[in-house]
Amino acid sequence: MRKPIQDEFTTLxxxxxxKYQLRMQRDKRCTECGEPxxxxxxxxxxxxxxxxxxxxxxxxxxxxxxxxxxxLESMDATS
Length: 79
Ligand SMILES: [Zn+2]
Fold this sequence. Notes:
The chain has helices spanning 16-26, 44-58, 68-75. The protein is mainly α. The protein is elongated.
């Protein structure tokens, strides 16, 4: 039987998913897939996904091409 992870989040009364996100943030990893984070708390792939999700939600028509995720995207055209 595997031992459960014991760290500062183990005893918190929060969901397993939230604990996972907190651990990823602590380790500078993407909170969604665990890849090394490009910026903030997400990898480039999920940075873009989050951005597009926000756009849809807010119904924005403009795109802010100076935004970091666009710059990273153009730097790394393979993903
Ligand atoms: Zn990710």
